[in-house]
Design goal:
This protein is mainly α and 244 residues long. It has two domains: 89 residues, Four Helix Bundle (Hemerythrin (Met), subunit A); 148 residues, Butyryl-CoA Dehydrogenase, subunit A, domain 3, CATH 1.20.140. Helices cover 66% and strands 0% of the residues. The chain has twelve helices and no strands. The longest helix has 21 residues. The protein starts with a helix and ends with a helix.
Length: 244
């Protein structure tokens, strides 16, 4: 029985033995998808359990007659449940007190400055108001996501809140935006992990939100040339990583 035939038969009969076989055949996806979430204060077994439950849910919801691959359908479901698991744990994870306080205060200060200035404040303006460094402001923006690194199935606004379009869908072009994008996502994750807060911010604004260099420079309070040099540096890091 082929994979599609198994899905069709399970959808018609609801036979749990068939579902269990399908799940077992696709558990390798869970193992791969949770790897970039390890070493963030959550045990492998806990993440694996969350991913496996999401996989079961994906099998139950999948309609093989719609013409797309199960891997493409299941990947966002699994990643979504892992993301929700981390979000639900919230600040119970080991996050530095300073980062937690700055990330909590940031949106309030930003709103106050926006009302006072009549525009979105720059990073230097926020830093001055909060009496912290510009790097601390950028770190706080990342800290709004709790762990200070990008979850590659999300986009972000200025405060690091989740959006609607996956990073890998915007950054890497591929016909299948599901399981086949894992290699690209691993590359992105590796590069982002080693970027400074400023360069991660530039990456997000430039390559995901497609802001102009001048817009980013205005927000950061730097020259457009500085943003241009940073952009070239980021591109080179991706090139080097892809050529490994």
């Amino acid at each position: 029985m082929t994979g599609k035939e198994s899905f069709i038969k399970y959808r018609k009969t609801g036979d749990l033995d068939i579902r269990n076989r399908i799940v077992e055949e696709h558990l390798y996806m869970v193992d791969i998808l949770i790897r970039k979430y390890l070493n963030k204060g959550v045990e492998y077994d806990d993440l694996y359990q969350v991913g496996a439950m999401a996989l079961i849910h994906a099998v139950d919801r999948f309609d093989p007659e719609k013409g797309y691959e199960f891997s493409s359908f299941a990947t966002p479901t699994i990643l979504g449940e892992i993301k929700k698991y981390f979000r639900d744990k919230g600040w119970s994870m080991k996050v530095p007190r300073r980062l937690k306080e700055n990330a909590t205060t940031l949106p309030v200060i930003k709103e106050q400055l926006t009302g006072r200035l009549g525009r979105t404040p720059t990073v230097p303006e926020i830093a001055e108001e909060m009496k912290i460094t510009e790097e601390d402001v950028l770190e706080a923006m990342e800290g709004r996501q709790i762990y200070g690194t990008f979850s590659l199935d999300q986009t972000f606004d200025d405060d690091g809140e989740s959006g609607d379009n996956p990073v890998f869908e915007k950054f890497a072009s591929h016909e299948d935006k599901g399981f086949d994008m894992l290699e690209h996502k691993e590359i992105i994750g590796t590069v982002l992990k080693n970027l400074s807060n400023t360069n991660r911010y530039i990456f997000r604004k430039r390559f995901i939100e497609e802001k102009s260099q001048s817009e980013i420079a205005d927000t950061l309070g730097v020259s457009q040339m500085t943003v241009s040099r940073a952009e070239k540096n980021i591109k080179q890091k991706f090139t080097d990583e892809m050529n490994k």
